[in-house]
Amino acid sequence: MVTHRIRIKDIALQAGVSTGTVDRVLHNRGEVSQATRDKILSLIQESDYTPNLAAKSLANRNPYRIAVLIPEGDVTNPYWKMPLRGIRRAAREIRDYNTGIEIYRFDMDSRSSFQTRLTEVLKSNPAGVVLAPVFQDQAAEFLKQLNDKGIPCVLIDSRLRKSNYLSAFGQDALKSGFLAARLMCFGIRPGSSILLLKLARPDGIIHHLSRRAKGFSGYIGKCTPSKDISIRTLTIDLTAPGEPAASLDKAMAEQPDIAGIFVTSSRASVVAEYMESRNKSEIILIGYDLTEANRKYLKNGTIDFLISQKPDDQGYNSIMTLCRYLVFKLLPVRIQYSPIDIITKENIDFYQT
To answer: Is residue 126 domain-shared with residue 196, that is, in the same domain?
Structure first.
């Protein structure tokens, strides 16, 4: 059965209003009564209306350039290869719509590297920006400068709570911390200790990683008092010589009752490697994200659980959302949370790296 594309005039006819009224609702401009707005939005949802992107792009003679600021995805930080894959997939799709991207990579352990890239992007005057706000204070100031220039920004992987941005993609970090703690409690023995690991330089802790830690600690503290479980928080700079082994050896010697380790980032694999070298595979290990290294240790049982946030989709959707806004001025949902998936060695084969 062949169906025709739903047009603005079709929505207007069903709603009993003019095409101009439907257009104002779609683009969130002009005065429209709440009752009429609700009726039009309901019809749009029911009819699965989508704008004719190709036709619109042909009418748009000015090309759009989207600047993308994300960390380098290398051996020391493999997570960012996954959002980049989605970003490049979206870039191929929007090419025919007179829209392209320019990628700016930075060292996520270096504030100066981040600032250098921010300055370069501002000078390039893009139509829009996709930003990973790794260093929150610098990112917040950057957003103010974008706002002054009228440049829309979509955030990826994390968000800035008191800043003005178009949309943000990422995980509900606090709830993911709750989930990690609940998983830990299924197997932790009463009277034991948990090591909460932040694998980053002390001045480089990303906000959403701190939120994960807060959620984890909050759940353990409130929901497991009868188990008498204690938490020790440890920050390890992986760029320092001998790490993480030196800090982990010290922690294990000081607290031999450690029965669980929670890693707030995608680097659980470096802890898994340590655990295998010290024959400590009985310790429950929970981390984030399906990097190639994490996949290896999840499949052999050293990592017990990984919590995924579909980073490939985050990268793809951030670009597509900004493109739709630039071409159509369609306002997206401001906060777009990713699903919180629990991955084990039993279901890992259903997820791509």
So the answer is: no
Q: Is the pTM for the entire model greater than 0.85?
A: no
Give the Cα separation of 97 and 274 in Å (integer). Answer: 49
User: φ, ψ for residue 182 (rounded to 5)?
Assistant: -65, -40
What are the pLDDT digits (tens) for 301-311? 999 999 998 99
Whether 110 maps to a domain, the answer reads yes
Q: Which helix (H) or strand (E) holds 210?
A: helix 207-223
Separation in Å, CA 168 to CA 140, 299, 318: 14, 32, 8
Q: Which residues contact 48 (CB under 8 A, 6 or more apart)?
A: 6
Closest alpha carbon to 124 in 60, 61, 65: 65
3-state SS assignment for residue 152: coil
Is pLDDT of 46 > 50? yes
For residue 142, give Cα distances in angstroms to 65, 131, 167, 315: 18, 10, 16, 20
Q: By C-alpha distance, which of 318, 311, 316 is closest to 266?
A: 311
Between CA 172 and CA 215 the distance in angstroms is: 10
Does some domain include residue 275?
Answer: yes
| Of the candidates 26, 31, 332, the residue with the CA atom closest to the CA atom of residue 152 | 332
